[in-house]
Structure formats: C-alpha cells, structure tokens
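Feature request disguised as a bug report, sorry. It would help if multi-protein outputs had a clear separator. Right now it looks like this:
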Amino acid sequence: MVSKETFGYISHRVWQYLWRWAKRRHPNKNTKWIRKRYFKTIKGVKWTFACTIGDRRGKDKELVLYPIAKTLIVRHIKVKGDASPDDPSLKEYWESRQQKDGKTRFEKGSKLYKIASNQKWRCPLCGEPLFNGEETDIHHIVPVAEGGTDDMENLQHIHSSCHKQVHKTQVKSRLK
C-alpha cells in the first residue's frame, strides 16, 4: 500500500469514528443538526470536522481537523557519497538540504512559512540554519502580556535553546 492510499484510508476511518461519536453524544438530535454542529465546508471540502472556540482575546476562532489525506508525500533524498556535516567545504550543501527540509514543514503561503522565509530560514539569535536538527519555537518579540500580538511582524522562529536564553535574560533584567 502506498502512503497516499494509507492516508486516505485513515482519513476516512477518522471521519467515520467522529460521525459515530457525534451521533452517540447527541442521541436525541437528527443527522442534519449533528452535521450543522460538527461538520463544515472549509475551502470547498464538505464534511470537515471543525469547531469554534474563543481565543485568549475573546475572539471566535475556528479549529479544523487536519486533513491527513492532503499531506504531501516527500521522498527522502539520499546524502551524496561520503558527505559529512563536519566537513567545512560542504557547508553550503548541508545548508541547502536543511533549507529544503524546513520548506516542507509548513504549508507554502502559511503564516509560519512566511515568517521563516522572512528570516531567510535562519535563527535570528544565533545565525545558524533554523532546521539543523534542533527543536524550534515561535517567539513573540513583544510578549502578549505586554500588549504583543500574534501578527507576523511580532513572531520569530528560533531554536528552543535560544528561546530559553532570551527568556532567561528577560527574567534577570526584571529582577535587577
């Protein structure tokens, strides 16, 4: 079985489970009511499981179940010959590989993709490639507690270790 078929099968089964769950949860409601409550048409795709919640600012936000069947299948690219990340003459080769990996992490055109692209796929604090095997975090330049927003201009992708250093220095400066 190929990945795409497997993802399609899983997507179908998850939909079946969700539909059964919704019918079990509301035994006295008809199917039209259940569909209207839990399933929406999103980006032209009918019967998408979604719900509306309030975000931290009190605005309504829609949460949508990730459509696993739409996942792009990316083939693994083998490393050339005896290429080593420790070889300084192959620095550009490894950076281009890491950048390709990073470009597949976020949906092209999404907010997270645009943020990484604006940073030229590098951590703004240490200058290393963003996707070099380390975990990454999303950092608010102006903290939300101090009036910062979730706009692209106020967000950065940074390594988790760099993120810890930023907040450690911010705490120390507040204590002085």
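(second protein starts here, but nothing in the output says so)
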Amino acid sequence: MSRFIDLARKAAARRSRLPDDWNDWRQVDREQGPRPFQVLTVTSNKGGVGKTTVATNLAVYFRALREDLPILLLGLDDQTTIDRMFELGPKTSGETMTSALRARSFTSAVHLGQYGVHYVPSGPDIAELKREISDPFYLQAVLHRTDWHGLIIIDTKSDLEILSQNAIAASDLTIAVVTDHASLTEAKKVFDLLDTWKRPHERARILLSLVDRRIKFRDSESRDVLSLLISEIRRLDYPLFESFLSRSPKVESLQTNPAGRTLSILNAGKGSLVYRQMRHLADDVLNVLDESRSAGGSRGSLVAAASRLLRGDTDEFWGDPLLNAGAAGKVESPAVEHV
C-alpha cells in the first residue's frame, strides 16, 4: 500500500509542475500566422541508423554554408551527444530540455555553442514528459512562444512516441533516416502520421544512411544494398533525398577521443567520403526548406529530380557523382572509404 501511495504522490507532483492548460491547445491557435522560424526534424523509430550524427552535423554544415542563418539544435533524448559536441565550457546548473518544455519556452535555456550553433542542454529526465504530454502539437506552441528567428533542428529519440510525434508535427521537413529494410518499415510510420494529420508526404523525406555498397546481390536486379533500398522506396512512392551517406569507420571514430568530445565531420572528417556527402546533403536540405518557405513557388530542381527518380524515368546521380556508375558508364563506383 505504501508503494502505491508513493507512486501516486510522484504522479501528482509531476502534474503539479505543469501548467493547467498543458494539453489544451487548439490547433487553430498553434498554426495561426507566419512563423519566424523553420523546423527540421531528424527521426527514426529504429536505433543505430546515424540519426544523431545527421542532426548534429547538419547543424555545423548549415552554419558553414550560411553564416547569417541562426541555428538552434534541440535533442528529445536523454543522451548527451549534443552537449559533448557543442558546449563551450564546463557544465553548469541551469535549464535543460525538460525544464524548458515545462516552462513553455526555450528562450532562457538556449546556449551559444561550438561552431556558432545554439543548443539547449540535454535533459536526463526528459523521459518523464512522455507520461505528462498527450498533445502532439504542444511543442509547436512552445516554439512559437520561444520566438526563434532562424532554423530549429530537432533530434528525436529512437521511437515514435509522443515527444517524437511533437517534433514531426512541428516540422516543415522531417528526415526519416533509413539504413536497411527494418528501418524503412519504421519510416512508413512517419508517413502514416502525416496521413493522420492530413499533411502531404512531401513534409517528410527519406535519407539513406550508413550505406555499405560492398554488400552485393548475385541473383537480384538490384546490384547492391543502395539500389535495393531505392527500388523499394520507389515502389512505396515516398519522397527521398538525392544524397545518401556511406558507412564510414572514420566518422564512427569521431565519437571517441581523449578529450571526451564528439567531433564534427566538417572539422575532423576532411578527406573522407562522408565529408563530401554531408555537404551534398546540407545543400539539398536547405534547398527543400527554401522551397517550402516560398508559398506557391516552383518546386525546384531537387524535388523535380526526386520525382523523376521515384517514377524511374531517369538515372540521376546520388550525392557524389563518383559513387555512381553513370548512365553512360563513364564512372565506376569506388569501394566504401574506411579512413
């Protein structure tokens, strides 16, 4: 009995920390008026696909490509990768993702970090919010109250529970990271969510990550794992990026070093294949975001090229041209880089 009372008290304490109208935001209020920011979410319901690597390194590349674009990075996870990559000094007490979400604004929790990227420190107790939030549009309202002018990148936990749903619901563009058939199956759930909210599939795009083109198939029309996944995505008629990211021990090594920091691909991965691929990806994502910002504007070359790929009308180059055989057989695909 005492244990039950204890649990009830803890639940009551959690509720008491939330505003009375925590889950009472009408969608018409949430989406009212133009936003001074855009939101990019990187997500996957499967772990180990390189999701956090994509989110954090895109933030760095965006700052390098557009120095005048303010970047705010948010992590809906209890891991500290974002802190280890961007914090400029020793950790100090203060607001975290958890406390800022409860306060309905990130304004006072934002820190300026490495590479000119702003971020909010991770919340080790952020999982508690999964029991406190039921509205998938709450984060969108919090972002409006924060009034950030620029781009917001959200890295989600490897699930599609309520916090991840909040990130997708708030996004202008969601990157669904896929590395194999299992993660592709999970990516379908992102598009199912968009269907539920009556939003077009173009609000999300699949990114093929950790692709190892040494994996070959003898008795198949698909020559390797990349072409196999592309073929399946075409069949499903889902939007996807022209760029993809190869598996690279060099990139994996950036997570572990004597300084205990997470190093960026832009600064510590020069000369690697993924260094160039990430540049292509950053350009592609910025193009899509630019197009989504221009109401009624042209769909642009990226979207048109992706559509042609999905229809199977043409052979397009994916990421770096050196990674493709080419329509006329002019270039050969090199082995995946390991240094």
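Even a blank line would do. Unrelated, but nice: Strands lie at 37-43, 71-76, 111-112, 118-119, 150-156, 173-178, 204-211, 240-246.
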